[in-house]
Structures are given as C-alpha cells and as structure tokens.
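User: Let's play a game. I give you a shape written as tokens, and you guess the letters that built it. Ready? Here's round one.
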C-alpha cells in the first residue's frame, strides 16, 4: 500500500475535517496518508483528531517540501483568505489535491476544479461546474446546471436550485437557499439561513427571508 504525504494549509476544525475526508478517500483507494499541518495561528503539536500535528506556520512550509512526492491540501474556508494563501504558495510548484469525501454524491457531467473540497453528504447532481479552490461543505445540494466560480465557499446545508450561478469568492452561510436561475455576484456574502429569490449584487452582504442587502449605518460601524 502506497503512502502519500499531504501538506495541509490550516489546522483548525475545518482543516481537520478536510484531512479526515481525504483519509477516507485514500482508504477507499487502498492508499495511506501522512498529514503535516501548517497554520500561522495554531501552536505546533499534535491535533486532537489524531490526524497529525502542526509543524509550524506557513513560512516553514518550503523547508518541508519534497518535490514529486507531496501534495498541498487547502484547509481554509474563508474565500478571501483562500485566495491570498493560494497566491502566496504558487511559487512552490506543489500540486493541490482535490478532496471528495466518499459519502458525497457526484452525478453525471460534473467537473470539480483543482484544490476544491466536497464534504460528506453533499450532493452535486448533473451538468455542474465547480471552479478551483471551492469549498462545498457537508450536506450541501448543488442542482443541475449550476456554475460555481473559484474560491467559492458553501457552508453546511446550503441548497442551490437549478441553473444558479455563483461568482468567484462568494460565501454562502449555513442553511442558505438560492432559488432557480438566480445569480450570486462575485465576493458576495449570504448570511446563514438567507433565501435569495433575486440576483445578489457582487461584493455585498445579504441576510433574511427573502434576502435583503445589509446596509451598515455610521452607528453600526462604531
């Protein structure tokens, strides 16, 4: 049985979920995994999940790379941080792993980009396009003919109806719903439980049922 070494970027709960999903995926393929975690905000040492240990911050990553053998794993969920980290590590030349938990359901004519993650219980039906470094968390539903850009994050239990388009870097909170044919603009945010029934403007935040744009006043900013 072969062993693959994975360098996981991030070490908090989400990163450990991604590593666990990859370990499950590798077990199905009769492979072993070795995980090394890198995180600027988590001290070095063994992680409670037992999946591995934090080696150090991201700055320590280059000294641990073995070209040809290693794979990077994105264990970060927030879109803007994902984009910054991917840009920062591009010069390493280490390929990114695409992680799909065996308990996810992937239908016909579905493409999933490099570095993306699909969690357990997620359902991608047919004719779906998922970009690079996109996160589809547990029990999300992505229906027919949906298109998700790069660096998108769907938190758990998001439901996208058919013919939905989600722009680069958009973040959809847990339990949010997008009805058929609606477009979510790039880097937009839907709060948890929001129901989008009309187009969502780029770089704006929406909350509520139905979704309404969140406008911050001067008092909110204080």
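Assistant: Ready! My guess for every position:
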């Amino acid at each position: 049985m072969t062993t693959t070494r994975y360098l996981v970027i991030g070490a908090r709960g989400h990163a450990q979920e991604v590593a666990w999903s990859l370990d499950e995926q590798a077990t199905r393929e009769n492979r072993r995994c070795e995980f090394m975690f890198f995180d600027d905000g988590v001290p070095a040492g063994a992680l409670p999940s037992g999946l591995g240990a934090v080696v150090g911050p991201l700055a320590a990553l280059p000294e641990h790379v073995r070209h040809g053998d290693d794979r990077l794993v994105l264990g970060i969920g927030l879109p803007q941080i994902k984009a910054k980290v991917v840009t920062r590590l591009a010069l390493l030349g280490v390929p990114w792993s695409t992680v799909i938990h065996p308990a996810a359901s992937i239908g016909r004519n579905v493409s999933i980009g490099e570095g993306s993650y699909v969690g357990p219980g997620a359902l991608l039906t047919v004719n779906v396009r998922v970009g690079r470094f996109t996160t589809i968390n547990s029990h999300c539903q992505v229906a027919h003919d949906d298109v998700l850009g790069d660096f998108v994050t769907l938190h758990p239990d998001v439901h996208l109806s058919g013919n939905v388009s989600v722009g680069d870097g958009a973040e959809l909170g847990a339990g949010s719903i997008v009805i058929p044919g609606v477009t979510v603009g790039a880097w937009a945010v839907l709060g948890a439980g929001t129901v989008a029934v009309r187009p969502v403007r780029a770089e704006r935040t929406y909350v509520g049922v139905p979704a309404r744009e969140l406008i911050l006043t001067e008092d909110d900013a204080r």
